[in-house]
Known about the structure:
This protein is of the alpha/beta class. Among the domains are: 196-229 and 239-299, no CATH class; 307-442, no CATH class. Helices cover 26% and strands 20% of the residues. It contains 13 helices and 17 strands. Helix 5 (76-88) packs parallel to helix 6 (110-116), helix 9 (287-294) packs parallel to helix 10 and helix 10 runs parallel beside helix 11. The chain is globular, with a radius of gyration of 27 Å. Residues 1-14 have low confidence and may be disordered.
Amino acid sequence: xxxxxxxxxxxxxxxxxxxxxxxxxxxxxxxxxxxxxNTITIPLLLSKICSRWRDAAISTPRLWSRLFxxxxxxxxxxxxxxxxxxxxSGGCPLTIYVFWEEPPFLPSHPVLNALMEQSARWQVxxxxxxxxxxxxxxxxxxxxxxxxxxSLGTDDDLPLTANGTLNMFEVAPRxxxxxxxxxxxxxxxxxxxxxxxxxxxxxxxxxxxDILRQATNLEQGGxxxxxxxxxxxxxxxxxxxxxxxxYFTIMTPPWNETIDLRRLFSQLTFPFLENLTIxxxxxxxxxxxxxxxxxxxxxxxxHLRKTAIVDHQLVQGLKHLPSLTSLIVHSSPQDAxxxxxxxxxxxxxxxxxxxxxxxxxxPKLKKLELTINRNVAQQFIDMVESRVIVNDEIGGNPARLExxxxxxxxxxxxxxxxxxxxxxxxxxxIAIEDLEKGITTI
Length: 442
């Protein structure tokens, strides 16, 4: 938030600046963060400095086109504020963040009713509501011509489970991004075929396959798998080949990190996927996962964080990823390490081995982030050296590592640090992450 110096005589500059320039200055006073300060406090402050500033602020509709609201009861003052903002924002598209986290929880709220009167101007909407309030949004059906981004969430203990019962967002011709937090998205009818981005969505395996089959234009998807479905039955033999997907993230919730996703991996083919991220998956990785990687012909970034994948499985998977340029493998201290001597030996480029004629792993690798311990520190140095000290005049060499980040689980010792300093002289950016102090660049 911009600070204001009380010692400045605001009467002089406000009298000299054209209103149009003053309006632009006001818009720069609110940054891109959607919070109470930027959407309510600062616009009100600017309109109270002097009469000229007030006139300029009120005549700047974009200054009033965003709202961040924590719904309360009674709601009279909030309704008045909302109506003021809706009036002052003129015909501008609206960005609205609404949180209803304090009881009493009712089927509707006066603030929601006021906002729905202007649903034709909704552009970006985030609604975190009790599940009982979602049906009240039915009034916006067929009245969402500008809506492009929608985020829905609830904090109810019981998740919403009924399929396709709410259709208020089914018709939104410009809607391309949807996320659902803490409940299954299947309660809503969404225009899946329009979507290009799903930042985060809580799903079962069956839900995810169904969504991927319908969201044919999806380019970026993030799924939190809250259930594995019925492990005894196949997924209706629904093989999915998605040709538009470029970024895909798989996560699990903290209360269920051992969901078995083998049935999912066997269903998916993403021939043009460029970035795969898997976080907090503690169930065993298997042959199905390796086969899944073998179908990712365009993958450039593989990010594994706090997973149960073992070293030899990762080695087998990397054999299928010659296009990979970035590899990130982080494990938590309580997990068995993925980065072992086996993995590091496989990543070490062997210049005078028959393997170097085409069987070496990830020949295009340029960025590497690993969690390591002291037991494998020297092997890590040897591996990095084989991919940094490269004679470009000799054919068959790997790409040179350009960025290296290390997350040690313990002190690595002065000798290892000195070797990293020497390797830096060959050009790569090298950083060691201290979990207490942050990133240290060598």
